[in-house]
Write a structure and sequence with these properties.
Length: 136
């Protein structure tokens, strides 16, 4: 089996999200709340759309894939954030993905908690940092 490492194409993002969702399962409350219903077909479609939005709007983010050359199947993905002399603006989690306002607020709480240590590290480094966010 030959393997090929490459950048994810826009059309790969739903499959990439499904791989991430399967790998994380329900072991991580962050993933369960920030990406509700991630283990369902509709939830994976929305998750893929959200990853695509990140991919196309964040110049510091790079999604990579490993493809089985025999089958063409993507067998692994990773999300890397590469900060080269830049401290990005803080972002706020938003959208209408949650069933209740309480779920949304909890997701925002987890999101902020996850990103605060990263933002502090980016600031300490003067905006020179590489961070692997997601992998399978």
């Amino acid at each position: 089996m030959g393997l090929k490492l490459g950048d994810c194409d826009d059309s790969d993002m739903t499959d990439a999200f499904a791989i991430i969702s399967s790998a994380l399962g329900h072991e991580h409350p962050y993933h369960d709340y920030v990406f509700p219903n991630h283990d369902t077909t509709p939830g994976r479609k929305v998750g893929g759309e959200r990853l695509l939005a990140i991919k196309t709007s964040d110049p510091n983010t790079r999604f990579l894939k490993v493809t089985d050359m025999d089958t063409g199947e993507i067998i692994a993905v990773a999300k890397w954030n590469i900060y080269d002399g830049v401290v990005p603006d803080e972002i706020e989690l938003d959208g209408d993905f949650w069933a209740t306002s309480e779920d949304k607020e909890y997701a925002k709480y987890l999101f902020r908690g996850y990103l605060v240590p990263r933002r502090e590290a980016i600031k300490r480094s003067g905006g020179h940092l590489v961070c692997k966010s997601i992998t399978r």
